[in-house]
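Please, structure for the following, as tokens.
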Amino acid sequence: MIDTLRGFLDDLAKAKLDEETILGLDEELRQWQGRIAPLAAVEKDRMFGRVDDVPGHGQVMCPAFAIEEQDATSVRARVTFGNYFLGGNAAAHGGAIALLFDEMLGIPANSVGGAMARTAYLHVNYRAITPMDKELQVTASLISVEGRKRMVRGELKYGDRVCADAEGLFLELLPGQQ
């Protein structure tokens, strides 16, 4: 379902819709909204953001990535930005790139053991246009651990071209924090 929703959003983003299609789609979406609304659940019981074996934990706002290699301090994955993530002029939206880095940097930041860590700081440098509909490589590596602080760096590349790089500080949560 998550992949289907991602595909739908990509198709919607690249479509030129006529009035009849817009009205029909609006009606069908309203019907689905009515069917889903009564299924509201507390955060811990929701599917969105809680599917551990799906990139982004099932949050369709994050580009889907496929992990190729992972160890205790680093991860490497493939990612393709579809039309849903278009920022304009055939380039990926900068916010989608930042979201990808937040997800990717969180993997090594949370693989060192101890309590879960959350993003405290994320800095993204946009080095070159990030192309749409092209397979890219994204990496993230744990650089240091100092007490509760976990520093992580990442890179997004199209072939040999660095499209963006990022640095993040993740803080280990205190007891009682979620």
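The helical segments are 2-14, 19-36, 94-109. The mean pLDDT is 91.
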